[in-house]
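Write out this protein's structure.
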Amino acid sequence: MAENLAELREQMGDSACCPLGKTRTNLVFGVGAPDADLMFVGEAPGANEDLKGEPFVGAAGQLLDKLLASIGLRRDQVYIANVLKCRPPGNRDPLPEEVERCKPYLMEQIRLIKPKVLATLGNHATKLILGTNVGITKLHGKQIMRPDYIVFPIYHPAAALYTPAYLAALEEDFLKLKGLLQEDIELPPEEPEQISLF
């Protein structure tokens, strides 16, 4: 177990711990405030992220920055990470075995940051964090209580770039996020066995 994010990043190193390590340019660990109240988890790095070694630096990242600004936050006040730390070739969906390889690192990031709200961006992050097959269309904008944080699924900003209808939903969900961060919510003592939203 790492003492802090820097130590965790060092433990990951730059070795090719799975086949993606051989095809990526840079490992994309995560960026932001190490004690952020709000943490975002996306799917995987894209081409821009792979080149820079930082998550959400392309068009989707610019939209995320605008959405953050709309609720009075900057990128350096939150923490941003992905399920996968290496770019899948051709931006394909993560494979189950790749998710399993990276999952322990993501869960350790969450443990170290201790966010109040964990916002999952899109299907892959939401399904992993919640352990559900329910899609983002049904779950977005709902708060799901966990013992250590609130999970708040929202559409991936990249989806809003291609489907304008998602942008309105994203803007609305960010306003809900702002409210969540301002509330004093008591978390449940233990994790429920399953999601009981539907």
